[in-house]
Amino acid sequence: MIPELGQYALMLALGLAVVQGVMPIVGTRSNDPALMSIAAPAALAQFAFVAAAFAALAVSYVTSDFSVLNVYENSNTQMPLIYRLTSIWGNHEGSMMLWVSILTFFGALVAAFGNNLPAVLKANALAVQAWIAAAFELFILLTSNPFVRIPNAPFEGQDLNPILQDPGLAFHPPMLYLGYVGFSIAFSFAIAALIEGRIDAAWARWVRPWVLVAWMCLTLGIAGGSYWAYYELGWGGFWFWDPVENASLMPWLAGTALLHSAVVMEKRGALKVWTILLAILTFSLSLIGTFLVRSGVLTSVHAFAVDPRRGIFILGILILFIGGALALYAWRAPLLKQGGLFAPISREGALVFNNLFLTTACATVLVGTLYPLALEALTGAKISVGPPFFDMTFGPLFIPLMAVMPFGPLLGWKRGDLYGAAQRLIAAALAAAVVTAAAFALERGGPVMAPFGVGVAIFVMAGAVTDIVERTLILRVPLRVAARRALGLPRSAWGTAFAHFGIGVTLLGIVSVTAWGSERIAEIKPGDSLTVSHYRLTFDGTFGRTGSNYRDLVGRFTVHRLNGDIVGTMQPSRRAFPDRNMATTEAALMDRGVSQIYVSIGDPNKDGAIPVRLYFKPLVLLIWLGAGIMFLGGALSLSDRRLRVGAPRPARSKQKSRALPQPAE
Amino acid sequence: MTRKQRRLTLIGGGMTVLAIAVALMLNAFRGSIVFFNSPSDVVQNHVPPGTRIRLGGLVKDGSIVRSDGLDVRFEVTDGKTEIPVTYHGVLPDLFRAGQGVVAEGALDRGGVFDADTILAKHDETYMPKEVADALKKSGHWKDDYAQRAALPVGGASQ
């Protein structure tokens, strides 16, 4: 009964989406406020019904209702409750349900909290949001129905893919989807602005918080996925340039560009047309990511779909929305008015530089991801474009961007003083130079470029600090005055500094691990030792352990310093899942400051020796710590007064003047 | 500067960055692309020793020989041709006789494939797509691979 109710709720949501997609647009065309005002309650109701459908699926999972095919295939009574819940989105149908739930959730948020928006913009944006929701609800109902029943319900379900049975899965997909789907709001607002044919600086102010939220979630989602791959896949890599990862990186790059161009538009009224295009492209890349992952065109653990109908359906959605949006853009964008002027050396110029490099880097990732697919479709030749391609294209584009980043916030709007900014960055540059020299002196056998990479990372971090120092005048005025100035700074200034600092932290971690990480791979017997960096690990032996739906073969290692002091023990294991006849590697990690020792083991052979991978990962935790700092920066920026306060006064008066002939509003 | 000049500066800068990116990509494409081959492809195309390729097929039953340390030898087959492979390292979780495998590396002069990476990003019901296609081509695709991947007992209906 409950699954049927869920399906019914989803159908009703689809009906509501159609209403929400049509009526408000008719209303804005015919200037009928009653029709326009349908949008908000429809969006709220649509979310309620999608949430009900999602809840119905969740109930089926929690109660282990194996008469539902989706539950049978992905869940098992032996699994802990948390994994029964997370397996809802550990499969194709369920993850599409999550996608639509989040999409309608954002729609409902706009409906509930968008009171300060002009009525026409709000109605149009919610209508566009409804088209997207309708397309994906139709997709679920026609090709990926999670509520399909099996006639003779089995007593026990299959299992969730063991490598997905991990706390990481509870967190990573929802965060990623909040990011992906969050950009739909910017897309809907962009399309709404194009339909209306007018746009002003206030548009950027309304859209920026949504972009910020999506960007923050995507940042955490990508970092979470990266950490999950790092400890779960057993070989200690944090980024593989796998197409699925690229699919999440591309919207992040475009979204970061959008975040910055929206600042220019908000403050200076410039780059309007470009910002609209970026808003369209960012969500288009989210859609492309969804297509790549969900259609099964890729060979990867993420590609659950085996049904080509799904691929064609999503491709249809993709063409309809991206093609439609770009066509509308080509038609309407020339109507939008030009913005303010600025000199090439200025804050705007720096942000344009940022946009140029971010979008170009994004384009290289897109080419590297799609080229193998295109080549196979056209010639049948199967190739793989691996990490070397991305290292050779993405790296050279990203490093100059990093090196220029500290200058941006120090330049004035409209016309900047590059010489002045450079003078203020002398301390940061000195710090970077000293650390680079130290890295050269201390390193043994890393790549030549690595100390320079460290230098750039330090420069970025020190540059972010310089920005705050310059704004608070902390070195020039008494501490009390500086503290007052610091409190008085706009939160968005703190946000910028934190986010930029975070990028530097992440870069430092990446450079350090890539250049100076050490690994030992060997087969060892109980009593043997392996040495890595400043630590020696002694293998004590193995023992068995039983979990809820798995058996562990645990290897016990004692960790010593080279002088013999015992630091602790590490217990990596081989985890066998009998229901799936599969095994996973459970690595053991030990934090040493922000560095880590990483051990994983393979199956023991006949004489009791086990293959061991042992790594020392210097400063590895900085990679994810940096992402956390970026998230914090986003949060600070989000709490900025001008975003909380909402619509600026001039726009409010405009809204009032336009609302005058419509007293019903 | 006039508006026009500024716009030209912008466009010029954009074009320069784009041109650099295209140059970087073309350069990277030349050096870092790896072609996928089945064992039969390797023989037919006369892949020269030292060229990096991906070799995909099934791990031949009974061909896995583990020697001291972490050296492994096995044969990759597509039902028609077999290629011996050597690998030093820890094999992935899903490496098993009779299962699909993709190895990346190069042939040595003696016709042995020296792999430095073994990919097995599939589970017990799922084949790497390249391997499945290669097996279908050589006529050794077993239907039960697809069946195992598809449906549980009893089948499904609405």
Can you describe this structure?
The complex is a heterodimer of chains A (665) and B (158). Chain A has helices at 2-30, 33-36, 39-62, 69-74, 81-86, 92-113, 119-143, 167-196, 201-232, 243-268, 272-294, 308-332, 347-379, 387-404, 418-424, 426-442, 450-472, 479-488, 491-516, 621-638, 641-645, 649-659; strands at 383-385, 518-524, 529-532, 535-546, 551-561, 566-570, 573-577, 582-586, 588-592, 595-601, 610-617. With 665 residues, chain A is α+β, with helices and mostly antiparallel strands. Chain A has four domains: 1-165, Up-down Bundle (Four Helix Bundle (Hemerythrin (Met), subunit A)), CATH 1.20.120; 169-303 and 335-393, Four Helix Bundle (Hemerythrin (Met), subunit A) (Up-down Bundle); 425-517, no CATH class; 518-617. The model of chain A is unreliable at 300-306 and 647-665 (pLDDT under 50). Chain B is an alpha+beta fold and 158 residues long. Chain B has two domains: 1-33, no CATH class; 35-150, OB fold (Dihydrolipoamide Acetyltransferase, E2P) (Beta Barrel), CATH 2.40.50.140. Chain B contains four helices and seven strands; from the N terminus they run H-E-H-E-E-E-E-E-E-H-H. Chain B has a five-stranded mixed barrel. Chain B is elongated, with a radius of gyration of 23 Å. At the A-B interface, helix 4, helix 13, strand 1, helix 14 and strand 2 of A face helix 1, strand 1 and helix 3 of B. Strand 1 (383-385) of chain A pairs antiparallel with strand 1 (33-37) of chain B, so a sheet runs across the interface.
